[in-house]
Amino acid sequence: MNDSNDLDKAVATAARFIGYQPRSAAEVRKRLERDRFNTETITAVLELFTQHGHINELDYTLMFIADKMRVSKYGKARIIHGLRQKGVPPSVIDEAYIAIHNAPQKHIEADSLEDAELENASQLLAQKYRNENLAEPVTLKKAADFLARRGYSRDVISRCIKNSL
User: Fold this and answer.
1) For the chain, which terminus, N or C, has the lower number of CB atoms within 10 Å?
2) Is the pLDDT of residue 40 over 80?
3) What distance in Å separates the CA atoms of residue 62 and residue 96, rounded to the nearest whole number?
């Protein structure tokens, strides 16, 4: 198989893959490696897609954060873990959180990242523990553990529980 044909097939594969939903460069690389394209072809496809704006790590990260906060109601720790699993570099994650902090209304539906996290945690707590007494130590621990698993910081958890009592 010649290199031009291999490149065309890799471009088509990558286009189908990111056509379904936005992907990180690492996800596209992994997919092309799975389909056994050689390293040079994969690098060429990633460069081509990056140059044409089809792969943009910062935009992907901002979209991922906003989506996970709005739809899944995840906290920062769980979102960062998800981004790392997707292969997003830590520097891009930091850059995205700085962008959100500097212009929250542009990326999330809140005045600040902290307000959004507290609101989401409060909604989750009210939904899951609406018929339970949070003043009971066992229920309080379960609620705190639930929010921690969702990726919320201790500060957000304590503020949320304090507001719920």
Assistant:
1) N
2) yes
3) 6
